[in-house]
Amino acid sequence: MRITFLGTGTSHGVPMIGCDCDTCRSSDPRDTRLRPSIFVESADARVLIDAGPDLRAQALRHDIRRVDAILFTHGHADHILGLDDVRRFNAIMQRGMPCYGDAQTLTDIRRTFHYVFDPATPKGGGLPALDLIEIDGPIGLGDLDVRPVPLWHGSRQILGFRMGAFAYLTDCNRLDDAAWALLGGLEVLVLDALRIRPHPTHFSLDEAVDVAARLGASRTFFTHMCHDLPHESTNARLPPGMALAYDGLVLELT
Ligand SMILES: [Zn+2]
Ligand SMILES: [Zn+2]
Ligand SMILES: [Zn+2]
């Protein structure tokens, strides 16, 4: 299984519009962060987790031509606004795109992209073909065994995903007992770490380090970072086995 980080930034991206801070002006390419998404490739499946507003740029950068399905963590703008770009994958693959999410996320997608699902909208090249499928338990995508993990994102419950010994948990500030029970024995954990200060819907870096230490994955990578976390200096003070992810990072898992 191969994981490519397409974006590791928070909803504003880094650099942020109109900001002159050191991170936003950094020349280190690892300080440039598109909106959060990963691409998972196995022997016979290619899956996106989330489709944010940078999907077009991310697909071009990594020459992604085939996507078999999209797994959605939740319906916030930074995770779904790339759905219009699915039109290219529809054309290449000559079929609708299976889009998996919980009931709330599918409602959010139907509301945000209401014209796509309105029978009165004239059919044509302007509409992505989206097959919305509700997740209510483990699913198989080709040879990938995908297990949804319930996460708390403020007062809202969203989904993380576990595939084998890999878990992707973005946009969360609390794991309840049901989540802990699903996250033993991880080889690689990806976890939300927004910034230094606490936040009502995201783990701060200290909180994320604490959770990561308790989960005990062999390697942990943090994502969904804002400009408060410059790559190199932040990495230098993280515990062994933990690092900030960066756009373009590729992980190979056996
Ligand atoms: Zn900044
Ligand atoms: Zn969110
Ligand atoms: Zn987000």
Structure summary:
This protein is α/β, with parallel strands linked by helices and 254 residues long. The protein contains 7 helices and 14 strands. The strands form 2 sheets. It has a 7-stranded mixed sheet. A 7-stranded mixed sheet has the order 7-8-9-10-11-12-13.
Structure characterization notes:
By secondary structure, this protein is of the alpha/beta class. It is 20% helix and 27% strand. The chain is built from seven helices and 14 strands. It has helices at residues 55-61, 77-80, 86-93, 103-112, 177-180, 205-215, 231-236, and strands spanning 2-7, 37-41, 46-49, 69-71, 97-101, 130-134, 139-141, 144-153, 156-163, 166-169, 188-192, 219-223, 242-244, 250-252. Strands 6-5-4-3-2-1-14 form a seven-stranded mixed beta sheet. Strands 7-8-9-10-11-12-13 form a seven-stranded mixed beta sheet. The longest helix is centred in the last third of the chain and has 11 residues, at 205-215. 43% of the residues are buried. Bound molecules: zinc ion (3 copies). Residues 16, 19, 21, 23-24, 227 line the site of one zinc ion.
Brief descriptors of the model:
alpha/beta, 20% helix, 7 helices, 14 strands, binds zinc ion, globular, 254 residues, 7-stranded mixed beta sheet
